[in-house]
TrEMBL record:
Residues annotated as domain Peptidase M1 alanyl aminopeptidase Ig-like fold: 450-553
Listed SUPFAM superfamilies: Leukotriene A4 hydrolase N-terminal domain, Metalloproteases ('zincins'), catalytic domain
Cofactor: Zn(2+)
Name under which the protein is recorded: Aminopeptidase N
Length: 885
């Protein structure tokens, strides 16, 4: 916490460290009321920085210094400078050893950064700058050191003592305490350090690597969760095999451990050999976790595992390079999930998420490039832009180079930079060198923020049999970047004839046609491409698979979109055509509503979804995706000024009309799938996910009919389901329905059954927080008093406050501003407890420019109130001040 304004750190100021730390020897004495940390650092002058001996400036925060030695000399207060962020001393030789002892207080650490307690266990979170809350250190990712760690604690309370690397020795003391020493043979930055101590049980397995080494796999949990680890373990083994096959990456230690903790700011953390997970990202079994949760566990387990190469073996030089590891690793985990499930469905989900949330970030006051060039608080830059857009940038490189060229590039990258801390430029350079290409212009994706718009026009010349596509790209200004240079935009496309067949593609000037789909690299502000030998006016299928993170516009008519929905050979674009059709129809309804006219649904949307529902040849997951109307958040994102009430009313109206018109086919699909669910036990496979997702979306439409047979079906599904996917979906439709009695009964039964399972109670909170019926704020306030709620647990905050502010648009944007006031109150409270979570919960208020003037004023007033509310963390200060600027 601070009163002065936080400093801005700039990429252009980067300098290599003055000193290096070759070895780090840590000893932790864990006690209930304090922890003693002794650190021995074997250091030397960085030869790359010249020969003099500048002062050594160690990072350290919230540490009580007990003693410090330089070589064998105990230093007194006059030998060093100490402030609340640094300890500065003067080395007298190029090689030296520092010994420090500090006292810290994990037992009262509510920020969950550094060493803290989650329930009864000790654990750490050091990325990005948490290690400086553990000991005095050069806490920056380009300082890599070999760590040995000894942990000592009470044997009864903390029978399990873990750290990175391999266990070396352990022993007991007479006083009821015991200790263990771990050694990590790989040099690593401090942000990858981890320690865990607790009464943990583990599920064990083994993996044989591609060079036949045996690796012990362990997932540590509290005893009540032992039965929820199998899915994560299976996912881990699949991920290890996949990384060998897809990237040639083998695991490198003899043991790989995952620990589940209940209190965690993010999803999980890739600490070397000792991944620490938010329990929500590792625990899953049919009865307590939905299909979506199972898929999230599979993806996050893989993500953290993949970091062992993209992040740990090759790490970041500085935090501006965060996307080097995060964008690449998200890209890698997406490839894995695509291969394990349905690639098209995975792509649809990722794109829907990106367009709704990352595009909004890119258009807001916190917009930044994939490689930012300035920050106040690095924790604020674990963003959708760095992660999700960063992954899109890597994906575009692959699209431009082809799968083989990309693999050559990644092989070169890992080989060239193993053991180093490098930059996004180094990554791109490896791609260039392995393929003999120049990606200089492409690199603007790393430095320019904002979402480019790509406007495409087409002109068919029937006489010359040519089709000319004209591309115009423009990227709106973003904070600090008024003008943007043209991007390289890979546009994957095909041209479809009247039967929906792909035409052979030959560009003017080319000797012969090659293939029926191809990638054009659009790299100028305005540019045309002419295809020859085109026998009839074709319909272009553009940006297939969403080949670039841009806002595409092409003047498709609704009939053309319906044609693409049926015929496009690119599955993603079939879905996309349906979404665009729905957007057009919904925007028309929104307009009618705003003008006070009766809303009239374009029946073409009904016809289109009817044929989707009746198409037995379509993958059920695709049917479910195509039935899902664009979400309110997406409709808000694409509005100039978002009229939340009209958006909500129009979408609900469309859903009701569709439910009525399509009742029969929905009911058939529902019953067939529910029947199949009844007949087979739960399995977490793509086919079963697909079946249940169609079943549940059908139920949510059917329920709008308010017919007694549907209510009965929902209640039956709720009571009889053997899995959380069906049970929660049934609860959600009850909660969102007018059947007060059924709703109250469902909620009470659920809470009673799952009151002791915090992750299930999170889902119970979320379903209610997201309910758009009037009175949402009052319901959320009441739920905050529920015994299962605590503001100190980030999952609870996200489940209740986050779900309300981010998903319940109708209630969050009520016109008296009371929900804004509520959110600001929570942010002020969280600021003192957990700044990272406080800053994240703020996001919906920062989007004030999207709304009408009256709401803008109300939202800004709350931001201003936060700004003057007292000692703000750098996390909250940065977000509030930038969003008011
Ligand atoms: N590197 C982790 C994410 C992570 C980042 C910061 C954290 O604490 C502030 C925790 C986790 C990942 O990408 O999975
Ligand atoms: Zn990551």
């Amino acid at each position: 916490m601070r009163t002065e304004q936080p400093r801005t750190i700039y990429l252009k100021d980067y300098q290599a460290p003055d000193y290096l730390i070759d070895e780090t020897h840590l000893t932790f004495e864990l006690h209930e009321d304090r922890t003693l940390v002794h650190a021995q650092l074997v250091m030397r002058r960085n030869p790359a920085r010249g020969s003099g001996l500048p002062p050594l400036v160690l990072d350290g925060q919230q540490l009580e210094l007990l003693s410090i030695r330089l070589n064998d000399r105990e230093l007194g207060a006059h030998d060093y400078l100490l402030d609340d962020r640094h300890l500065t001393l003067q080395p007298d030789s190029a090689e030296f050893v520092i010994d420090s002892s500090v006292c810290i207080h994990p037992e009262s650490n509510t920020a969950l950064e550094g060493l803290y307690k989650s329930g009864k266990m000790f654990c750490t979170q050091c990325e990005a700058e948490g290690f400086r809350k553990i000991t005095y250190y050069l806490d920056r990712p380009d300082v890599m050191s070999k760590f040995t760690t000894t942990v000592s604690a009470d044997r009864q309370r903390y029978p399990v003592l873990l750290s990175n690397g391999n266990p070396i020795t352990s022993g007991s003391e007479d006083n009821g305490r015991h200790w263990a020493t771990w050694e990590d043979p790989f040099r690593k930055p401090a942000y990858l350090f981890a320690l865990v101590a607790g009464d943990l049980w583990c599920v064990e397995d083994q993996f044989t690597t591609m060079s036949q080494r045996e690796v012990a796999l362990r997932i540590y949990v509290e005893p009540e969760n032992l039965d929820k680890c199998q899915h994560a373990m299976d996912s881990l083994k699949r991920a290890m095999r996949w990384d060998e096959e897809a990237y040639g990456r083998e695991y490198d230690l003899d043991i790989f451990m995952i620990v589940a903790v209940n209190d965690f700011n993010m999803g999980a953390m890739e600490n070397k050999g000792l991944n620490i997970f938010n329990s929500s990202a590792v625990l899953a079994k049919a009865e307590t976790a939905t299909d979506a949760a199972h898929q999230r566990v599979e993806a996050i387990v893989a993500h953290e595992y993949f970091h062992n190469w993209s992040g740990n073996r090759v790490t970041c030089r500085d935090w501006f390079q965060l996307s080097l590891k995060e964008g690449f690793t998200v890209f890698r985990d997406a490839g894995f999930s695509a291969d394990m499930n349905s690639p098209t469905v995975k792509r649809i989900e990722d794109v829907a998420y990106l367009r709704t949330h990352q595009f909004a970030e890119d258009a807001g006051p916190m917009a930044h490039s994939v490689r930012p060039d300035a920050y106040m608080e690095i924790s604020n830059f674990y963003t959708l832009t760095v992660y999700e857009k960063g992954a899109e940038v890597v994906r575009m490189i692959q699209t431009l180079l082809g799968a083989e060229g990309f693999r050559k590039g990644s092989d070169l990258y890992f080989q060239r930079h193993d053991g180093q801390a490098v930059t996004c430029d180094d990554f791109v350079k490896a791609m260039e060198d392995a393929n003999g290409v120049d990606l200089a212009q492409f690199k603007r994706w790393y430095s320019q923020a904002g979402t480019p718009r790509l406007e495409v026009g087409s002109a068919y010349d029937a006489e010359a049999k040519t089709l000319t596509l004209t591309f115009r790209q423009l990227c709106p200004p973003s904070p600090g970047q008024a003008h943007k240079e043209p991007f390289v935009i890979p546009v994957d496309l095909a041209l479809l004839d009247g039967q929906g067949r792909e035409l052979p593609l030959r560009l003017a000037g080319e000797a012969a046609a090659s293939g029926t789909s191809r990638v054009l690299a659009v790299n100028e502000a305005e540019q045309s491409f002419t295809f020859v030998d085109i026998p009839e006016q074709p319909l272009p299928s553009l940006l297939r698979g969403f080949s670039a993170p841009v806002k595409l516009s092409f003047p498709y008519s609704r009939d053309q979109l319906m044609f693409l929905m049926q015929h496009d050979s690119d599955g993603f674009n079939r879905w996309e055509a349906g979404q665009q059709l729905a957007v057009q129809v919904l925007q028309e309804l929104i307009g009618q509503r705003q003008r006070g006219e009766p809303m009239v649904l374009d029946r073409r949307l009904v016809a289109a979804l009817k044929s989707v529902l009746e198409n037995d040849g379509l993958d059920q997951a695709m049917v479910a995706e195509m039935l899902s109307l664009p979400g309110e958040a997406y409709l808000i994102e694409i509005s100039e000024v978002a009229d939340v009430d009209a958006i909500h009313a129009a979408r609900e109206f469309a859903r009701r009309e569709l439910a009525e018109a399509l009742f029969e086919p929905l009911w058939q699909r529902y019953q067939a799938n529910r029947q199949a669910s009844r007949q087979s036990a739960y399995v977490a496979t793509a086919e079963h996910f697909a079946r249940r997702s169609l079943q549940n979306i059908a139920l949510s439409y059917l329920m709008l009919s308010e017919k007694p047979e549907v209510l009965e079906a929902a209640q039956e599904q709720y009571r009889e389901a053997d899995n959380m996917t069906e049970r929660l979906a049934a609860l959600a439709v009850l909660v969102n329905s007018p059947f007060e009695e059924a709703k109250a009964e469902g909620l009470a039964l659920f809470a009673d059954r799952f009151k002791d399972d915090p992750l299930v109670m999170d889902q119970w909170f979320s379903v209610q927080a997201g309910c758009p019926l009037p009175g949402g704020l009052e319901r959320v306030r009441a739920l905050m008093q529920h015994p299962a709620f605590t503001i100190k647990n980030p999952n609870k905050v996200r489940a209740l406050i986050g779900a309300f502010a981010n998903q319940n648009h109708a209630n969050f944007h009520r016109d008296d501003g009371e929900s804004y006031r509520f959110l600001a109150d929570q942010v002020i409270m969280l600021n003192a407890l957990n700044p990272q979570i406080a800053a994240r919960q703020l996001a919906p208020l920062t989007r004030w420019r999207k709304y009408d003037l009256s709401r803008q004023a109300l939202m800004k007033a709350e931001l201003e109130r936060i700004l003057v509310s007292g000692s703000l963390s750098s996390d909250v200060y940065e977000v509030v001040s930038k969003s008011l600027a």
